[in-house]
Amino acid sequence: MKMRADKTAFRIAALAAAVSAAFSSNVMAEEADEMTRLIKPESSVRLGIGSVDKGNARFGQYLGLQDSGVYGLADIDVVRRDDATGTWFKLRGRNLGLDRRELGLVYGPQGDWKLSLDYREIPRYSQYTINTGLQGIGSENLRVQSANKRDKVLETKREKVSLGFQKSIGDNWSARFRFTNEEKDGTRLFARGTSSGVGNANRWFNFLAEPIDSTITQWEALISYADPRFQLQGGYYGSHYSNHNTSLNITGGGVGFNGAGANTLSPIALAPSNEAHQFFVDGGYNFTPTTRASFKVAYTNATQTDAFVANPPGVLNTATTGNISGRTNLGGRVETTLAYLGLSSRPLPKLSLLGSLRYEDRDDKTPVVRYISTTPTGNHDGTNETRSFRTSQGKFEANYLVANGYRLVAGLDHDVKDRDTSDVRVVSHRDTTEETAWKIELRRAMSETANGSIAYVSSERTGSDFKVNYRFNGTPGRNVIAPIHLADRDREKIRLSADWTPIESLSLQANIEDSRDSYSSRADLGLGARRGSSKLYSLDATYNASSALSFNAWATHSDTQSKQATAFNAPEVVTLTAAQISALNIWSAGLINKTDAVGLGADLKLSEKLDVGADFEFSEDRAEYRLRPERGVTGAASLPDIKYRTATFRLFGRYALRKNAGIQLDLVHDRRVIDDWTWSTWVYNSPTAAGDGTTVGQDRTQTTTFVGLSGYYKWW
């Protein structure tokens, strides 16, 4: 729990007293001898205080250290064993003085039964500062206004409790049960608005805050059997998501969809409650010491039957007459069947084989009903669409020891996906995609201190013919771009890795991956995804100069690129003529994401009582767009790059007052530079008075220093 200096003097004093007590002469009077420390479980406790010098949005985003002030530091590990009964008692606590705390308990006789209890809190503070006049934040009832603006930082917190029990039943059987309950509360970014074309006076945007108040419960129960040849387990897994907020009810703000009267798009339905239940059986059988089969069968039934929010007529568009389906809930139901079979064998001392088959059928049995009326030229007719998938996968791999330490690995993967969709849609579609990949890899243990491998992977994705997009009235829609996950694609990848230990105190590891993608476009128009690439380089090094001094260093570089193109004036016909193709106005984008990161660290034992250590990490993440007009487009097209830089320095010093007690000093200096134009000056506004003028932004430079002083005590 966070403790502010101006409000928690009593708590800090109590904590300081506890630290003092931990090192009192009574506690320190008896130290465990060397033999006791070697054979008995170790317990420890750490108590102290920490300070953050400046408020920040990112350093303490998930730790609860986002505000300047004083915090409590507390960790505990209690491990006890009853030698007579073999009963273990384990208590573990982490970050007990912060908003992100963990506490776990395990109790039970070894090999018989075990009871576990876990508690966790996980906060998340939004990295954005919002200046808004919105009233009612945190509730379902909001009022949009541009007056009385003030700064707000949205936050959520999860509290998770888990209870587990495990019991041995006879020599080969065991049972396990786990129940988890997670409560999530807080608020997060939300918005509403309309758009009917660039420059249209009816466009407007309002900032909203979604209230979070939900519960996720999970149950898991299974029974297992195991002997030297046969292993089997079967069980049940269930989950239930309950959203205690059903809708946002909004007053003020917008002027309706496309300027239709005073309608303000209210209420707005929030995420509906749902649940899922799975039954499964999996296991394995050892036919011989060198041949083993494994399998899994599972069935899952997921449903969503939460009641609809009653929207008044006119909410969705001017032609809407409300819910015309006669239904009060979606009646959503998805049944998933999974079957897996694998076989591994070593028929010869130098040859190993591995093969598997996997089939998954995700059958969406949600009733298909027309919910709203639409204009005849629309891209949808107000009917919901189901999303069913069937996936079949087969894998085979052979591993053969050739000679002189060389090992050759060859593999083949085949993947078929079948999908369904409605004939009336906006996005291009094909029913089936099929991908085949093969790889060959050469490995070698070059010496007792060095080994490496090189692998080449090639894959090809094709599929059934693309379907024509149709409007509600039967006329064709735009049909020229293949979505990136459905487009024909050829991929080539090469991977190299090496480990080297030139001397006993030095070890090096290096990895290189490089892949290239080439996409085929619809009707050879050059639209959609064109090509892509991905590179990853990494190097790690560890050096133990002596028993008292060690170093480590690492570096990574990744570069992912995608070249895409689009035409914004494609005619809505099934097949384009040569004249229509030559008249297309084409833009292209070269999307690039680059990440560079390095780290250095050192640990030094200055004496028997004093240890010090330090590490430094730096990373830069850059996103580039590289928009470019290619044909029929005038004017320069560009978007600024987005860059995030983080530099973190950590230093610790630990001084042993006794063999089992001491003090520790921790220092963390964190600097982040954010160059993100998407959130630098964002304003919820419009050409009319409907926009509320809320701004969302973040500090470009955030520098934070954390200092912690704590004492630790160990016993056996």
From TrEMBL:
Species: Aromatoleum diolicum
Keyword Signal: yes
InterPro entries per UniProt: Decahaem-assoc_OM_MtrB/PioB
Stretch forming the signal peptide: 1-29
Protein name according to UniProt: MtrB/PioB family decaheme-associated outer membrane protein
Keyword terms, alphabetized: Signal
NCBIfam families assigned to the protein according to its UniProt record, in alphabetical order: OMP_MtrB_PioB
Superkingdom in the source lineage: Bacteria
